[in-house]
Amino acid sequence: MERYDKYKPSVIEWIGEIPEHWDSKRLKYVASVQPSNVDKKTIEGELPVLLCNYMDVYKNEFIDSSINFMEATATEAEIAKFKIKKGDVLVTKDSETPDDIAKPAFVKDDFENVNVICAYHLTQIRPNRSELIGEYLFRLFRENKYKGQFEVAANGVTRFGISVSAFSDAFVPLPRPEEQTAIANYLDDKTAQIETLIANKQKLIELLKEERTTIINHAVTKGINPKAKFKHSGIEWLGDIPEHWEVKRMTFYVGYVKGYAFNTELFQPDGMPVIKASDIKNLTIRKGKDFLRPDIVEQFEKVKLKTGDIIISTVGSTPDVVNSAVGQVARVPEEFNGAYLNQNTVKFYSFNDETFANDMLFYTLISNPYRIYLDLYAHGTANQASLNIEDMLNFSVAIPDDHEQRKIIEYLKISITNINNIASKIEKEIELLQDYRTALISEVVTGKIKVA
Predict the structure, then answer these.
(1) Relative to the CA of 219, which of 48, 212, 334, 415 has its CA 20 to 30 Å away?
(2) CA 353-356-360 angle, 5° bins
């Protein structure tokens, strides 16, 4: 892409050179910068307001009237000082991790007829539009190196924060306002195109997941023989099954080992990994933060896992929260071989691999009929559900003979591998698009390429 004709050294070390006609100033000289102290309380005698909270900024690039703001109260002085306006840039100033410091959102609406207030944990930046355009500043905060300087400046241990001076004293590369507008418009257009591509590819991944689920559902309830004759199973969630398949409750075929309720005092930052219910999501196991010392693990051999073991959570969110719902299933990958199973989880295993293959058990557990069954038996509060192991094993499963099971397992392994390979390729394409978007923003807002 086209570069500017002439460049000069910048006072901003991480940028290097900037176009010769650009300026550089500290943010406090071209904008007002103020951290908010308005909390979420409703106090009698104060005026009703809507709060633009931390999560409104954290989850949204743009702040507009479509957001369902929280209701609260504020004083007249707080309203006068912290009411947000079109063109403001709101950034996070506190967080649990440094990388969440200085996440920006741009205020797109004026909110003339309603008091929307910048809330606690945020810093409100109002550019002087004669020198700095909010749309441009927002894109600048999206540049990794610019944002990175605030991550480095954040202080804390369990929670991190940044001073107002860190924002105020930060240098801003300054093209002319009309050029800033052109840069912002260009990036709005290009990033929208990229985000549309990413969204379309994410839809493809979701379609592939649906296809994978459909294939598994059909294989474990109908088989893969197109000429098979069917009979009614007598079970609502199974429907018709091949007439030579046998229906029995899973408890006749499957054993279990409950996770151990480890004393948290045994945990340390490294050692042998402990898998918790919250670590099991989307058929995978994420690396947790709790480990056991190698010299004490012998006493917990019963809950030691090996590669290929099937584990399932017995607590979690309510069924409508699909990705974190109770009853999340995964197989132990090689990297977790030798890990230990914590409470609120259970390992399932087949008594006899020839009668009911362990692979067949896994595919049954991740099928929709079993998911529907678990949702019916999940109990608990509005936000937290749990399962009884007895209920989990009372599921009626349709079982073909050993020879047919092996054919189904081979078919599913090939089909799922093919789908996963396609999904993986698309995920890599999404990563490349995200990298391109990041690089494009950086090159444009630092003047490395010319768009105006």
Answers:
(1) 334
(2) 100
